[in-house]
Amino acid sequence: MFKGEKINTTENRSVLHVALRAPRDAVINSDGVNVVPEVWAVKDKIKQFSETFRSGSWVGATGKPLTNVVSVGIGGSFLGPLFVHTALQTDPEAAEAAKGRQLRFLANVDPVDVARSIKDLDPATTLVVVVSKTFTTAETMLNARTIKEWIVSSLGPQAVSKHMIAVSTNLKLVKEFGIDPNNAFAFWDWVGGRYSVCSAVGVLPLSLQYGFPIVQKFLEGASSIDNHVHTSSFEKNIPVSELFMEISDVNH
């Protein structure tokens, strides 16, 4: 995995989520190209955007700062970020950083779930993050259009570019939707859905809520475990030990 070999045999792809939390000076190749600089370019962009957003410099269509975030995604684009968000809510430093802010997630196309995600929120102070690599995921785009209508009905069509951003690589469809392509954050084919929380899928909404420095600590923690798995002997390797214990439990 760390060598960039295509161990995802069904799709003939590398599996490089470890690159998403690797140090800036690391070298992790995919098809002979070090992907770490590109990863850090996106993280630097997220850092800059989240700082602008959290400082109040990014304002909505009415001139008000935005304090609420709704992240629209499904599967790994929803579960991982929600898991980390739930954990960070119990951390004193993170809780302090999130004061006065709300982060919600929308995955289900059930109208009740849509209503829950925007309940008591003011469109004038809400930013929506649409998470879809291709910008064609059926459930995500249905929800994105519904939330877009909620914004437009209150603030007008010109508000979309101020109140909606994207995590996607399909800049053509992002632009057609009304989102400024400059406010689209990329991730890559070698990021599996269930591991995508360390990409812009999770780092962006979590940074908007808690600030990039706190999210970077989470990434550094993940990187430390990657290093442990990569360098520790089987006898001292925690995940390997857990694997053998699970096998033993199943057999007995």
Automatic annotation (TrEMBL):
CDD domains: SIS_PGI_1. GO terms for molecular function: carbohydrate derivative binding; glucose-6-phosphate isomerase activity; monosaccharide binding. Transmembrane segments: none annotated. GO terms for cellular component: cytosol. One of its GO terms (biological process) is glycolytic process. It is an enzyme of class 5 (isomerase). Its EC number is 5.3.1.9. InterPro entries: G6P_Isomerase, Phosphoglucose_isomerase_CS, SIS_dom_sf, SIS_PGI_1. Pathway: Carbohydrate degradation; glycolysis; D-glyceraldehyde 3-phosphate and glycerone phosphate from D-glucose: step 2/4. Keywords: Cytoplasm, Gluconeogenesis, Glycolysis, Isomerase. Pfam families: PGI (PF00342). The keyword ATP-binding does not apply. It catalyses: alpha-D-glucose 6-phosphate = beta-D-fructose 6-phosphate. PROSITE patterns: P_GLUCOSE_ISOMERASE_1 (PS00765), P_GLUCOSE_ISOMERASE_3 (PS51463). Belongs to the GPI family. This is Glucose-6-phosphate isomerase.
